[in-house]
Amino acid sequence: MAITNERLAEHPFLRAMYADGYYPDHVVDKGREVLVSLCERIEAQRPADLAALYRLTHGATNEFNALEPEFEEAGSEIETVAREAIAEEFWIVASAYGFADADVEKLIATREW
Predict the structure, then answer these.
(1) Mind listing the pLDDT tens digit for each residue in 95-111?
(2) Is 94:47 a contact under the CB 8 Å cutoff?
(3) Is residue 1 part of a domain?
(4) Within a domain: residue 112?
(5) Which of 21, 37, 69, 102 is most buried (CB neighbours < 10 A)?
(6) Which domain holds residue 28?
(7) Which of 18, 20, 35 is nearest to 88 (CA)?
(8) Measuring CA to CA, which residue among 63, 76, 65 is closest to residue 24?
């Protein structure tokens, strides 16, 4: 399923991480897929309120949690720069789907990074 939201269909997810050699592209690619899948789930399920959106974003956050060992194996980690980049992407997604009032900390509340 392709993203139909015009703001996100061509959005360069995790651009800052791709631009930084510290983050291995093959793992960042998996993070990008988490965000694309989140968009697809939002479009399919059409959350009616923030609580429903947060349930979806928490699932995606847990998928990022699962990537931490892969970052570590590649000599990297989800540290300050990555945390900020990922959090910003979650807010961009929420905003693009009409949830500009979403709290970024609540969007990623289940994070372990």
Answers:
(1) 999 999 999 999 999 99
(2) no
(3) no
(4) no
(5) 102
(6) 21-107
(7) 35
(8) 76
- What is the token pair recorded at 34? 């988490």
Tokens of 25: 């592209």
Q: What is the domain count for the chain?
A: 1
Q: DSSP string covering 44-66, please?
A: HH---SHHHHHHHHHHHHHHHHH
User: Which CA distances in Å does 85 have to 13, 91, 97?
Assistant: 9, 10, 19
Q: Does the CA dihedral 31-32-33-39 come out positive or negative?
A: positive
Token pair listed for 106: 């609540």
For the whole model, what pTM was predicted?
0.96
